[in-house]
Amino acid sequence: MFTGIVEEMGRIRQLDQVSETAVRLTIDAAVVLKDVRIGDSISVNGICLTVTDVSDDAFGVDVMPETMKATSLRMLKEGAFVNLERSMPADGRFGGHFVTGHVDGTGTIVRKTKQENAVYYDVAIQPELTAYFIMKGSVAIDGVSLTVFGISGNEITLSLIPHTVSQTVLGAKGEGDCVNVECDVLAKHVHSLMNHPRKQN
User: Fold this and answer.
1) Who contacts 126 (Cβ-Cβ below 8 Å, separation ≥6)?
2) What residue spans do the Lumazine-binding repeats cover (predicted)?
3) pLDDT-based confidence at residue 21 (cuts at 50, 70, 90)
4) Is 71 exposed, middle or buried (0-12, 13-18, 19+ CB in 10 A)?
5) So what's the pLDDT on residue 80?
6) For residues 157 and 120, is the Cβ–Cβ distance under 8 A?
7) Has residue 41 got a pLDDT over 90?
8) Integer Cα distance of 31 and 14 in angstroms
């Protein structure tokens, strides 16, 4: 479980193609390595991945074919920056919202506009995900906890503060770029219960 509060931007040091549809990533990092152990979970651009090895300045993860197919990781190249967050400690602060690291799909940035000290992003999402969005609801975009400020058709509007723009990979992204989308897990549970009620014994 994560909070959507990015701890640092890491850098893809090495990308090894282990099969046609699976890769192994070595990611340069600093903050997330402070107490990491093999087997721990780290969110990489919003995707929960398991640490398979650790050094003083990097960690390795394996990415399965399904993850490659369903997320933006398939577009990454060596040298690319990624958002990193360790899993939430039981005694830690909860600054964002419940983020599982299980991406629901990808979206495309269709507009990026600056308004005073905010940057607005309009993101086109897959139509089947629109049921999980409400005004002022939560969403994780590339692992960043954000608030929905507008909904129009299959597009959502997000407002980023300067800190988020400068401290996450979203700041360097623009129109046409792909992002990972994780809908609010509470909204998904409510939608499932309302549309597929369980029979009582």
Assistant:
1) 105, 106, 107, 154, 181
2) 1-97, 98-194
3) confident
4) buried
5) 97
6) yes
7) yes
8) 19
Position 72 scores a pLDDT of 95
99 neighbors 143 (Cβ within 8 angstroms): yes
Residues 27 and 52: their CA atoms lie apart, in Å, by 12
Tell me, yes or no, if the pTM score tops 0.90: yes
Q: What's the confidence (pLDDT) of residue 87? A: 93
At position 180, the amino acid (one-letter code) is: N
| The pLDDT of residue 200 | 60
Buried b (16+ CB within 10 A) or exposed e, 180-189: bbbbbbebbe
Half-sphere exposure of 77 (CA within 13 A, CB side): 0
Long-range contacts of 92-95 (CB under 8 A, 24+ apart): 92/3, 94/3, 95/3, 95/5, 95/145
CA atoms within 13 A on the CB side of 127: 1
Query: Quick check: 2 and 43 in contact, CB under 8 A?
Result: yes
CA–CA dist 27, 14 (Å, integer)? 7
Q: What are the backbone angles phi and psi of residue 74, rounded to the nearest 5°?
A: -65, -15
Tokens of 151: 């909904």
Whole-angstrom distance, CA of residue 184 vs CA of residue 133 = 8
